[in-house]
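@channel sequence for tomorrow's demo:
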Amino acid sequence: PTELVGYASYVLRRPDEQFRIGLRAQYWLNSDGGSHLRFSPRIFYARTLTSSVSWQTTLDVTSQSIHLLRNSTIGLPNDIWVPSTSRVAPSQAFQLSTTIRAKLGKSWASEVAVYFREMTDLVEYLNEPNLTGDWESKVSIGNGSAYGAEFSLRRERGKVRGWIAYTLAKSDRT
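structure tokens (generated this afternoon):
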């Protein structure tokens, strides 16, 4: 397969905010003669709310033309990468995330982030032991979603530096 990709963006910066909008175009030409054209818009906005608090949010649409197939029916993991074809489209995801960062005094900083992701055209092996032959007939194609929150606390100055973080996430596939 052949992949052609282009990206363009526009950035607007002001002292207390930044805005970026972009568009990624991806053309995937399959070895079997089929093709897929995907457009992936991206939007980023960041703003300084106070001298110690900032906020940012992003919206991304992404496309993945190569799929990882995993099979462990024989007791050993067997992973292969396969390309999108005329029968198996590229996977796509829509993600929205937002983050708030805060400085806590001179040495400490904290961050809270939440995200939501919808996915389409996800590819997985069917639950069968015989995987020889045409791989396209042995996969199921479905959808998924994921969402979660991430929390972190960092010490950025002083003799002892480091961070502690916690992530709570859920992912579903159908």
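heads up for whoever presents: The longest strand covers residues 108-125.
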